[in-house]
Write a structure and sequence with these properties.
With 211 residues, the chain is mostly helical. The protein has 7 helices and 2 strands.
């Protein structure tokens, strides 16, 4: 996937260095004046990793930005620093990991972006409150429970995987249009498809073990 050209650059709020008082972008991990590590603050996940905000991201660039920052912010590099610097480096490392794990996973990335648009989603990310989708999920799980061979499971999982890819391809347009209703429906379906994939994997393992 490539980074969306329509995406806006994630905004950064100004912050003051806790040590020297210099002003720097809120996403900057180090003070540009004194070089000391800065608290992570409430920076946007995209700004934290230096990416434009949008559903379509360059996965290779995400990895490069993450591993570069991880090397700079790893707590082991601050073993001989002051207690405050050690604590801040741990906060930075945790915030960086959270940002990376959120943006790396398509469903988590979609939920994060949707929440910033004000899309109302179930808190647990998996509750199905759409009656039609719930009925479809029940029928699919019934078919999975009745699958007698690993090949039967693979056929069901394959159909779910193809539908998942179709849903992912449609998310960019929904985000571009700020279609809250469409985003909610697509994200709920994606959550259900991801859960079904997990269930299919477990079902296949059980059939294989039984055989």
């Amino acid at each position: 996937m490539t980074m969306s050209t329509a995406a806006a650059t994630a905004p950064e709020t100004a912050a003051r260095c806790w040590s020297c008082g210099a002003t720097a972008p809120g996403a900057a991990p180090f003070c540009t004046a004194c070089g000391l590590v800065q608290p992570p603050g409430q920076s946007d996940h995209f700004a934290r990793l230096g990416l434009e905000r949008g559903f379509d991201i360059d996965g290779a660039m995400l990895d490069r930005r993450y591993f570069d920052l991880q090397r700079q912010l790893h707590p082991d590099r601050f073993a001989r620093k002051t207690p405050r610097e050690k604590a801040i480096s741990q906060q930075q490392a945790a915030a960086l990991n959270d940002a990376y794990e959120t943006l790396k996973n398509p469903l988590r990335r979609a939920r994060y972006l949707a929440s910033r648009l004000g899309v109302d989603l179930p808190a647990d990310g998996r509750t199905i409150d759409d009656p039609e989708l719930l009925m479809e999920a029940m029928e699919r799980r019934e078919a999975l429970a009745e699958a007698a061979t690993p090949q039967d499971v693979d056929a069901l999982a394959g159909a779910a995987a193809r539908e998942r890819e179709m849903q992912l391809r449609g998310l960019s347009a929904l985000f571009a249009a700020a279609d809250k209703a469409g985003l909610r429906a697509a994200i709920l379906r994606l959550a259900y498809l991801d859960k079904f994939t997990e269930e299919a994997r477990a079902r296949r393992f059980n059939l294989g073990a039984a055989g």
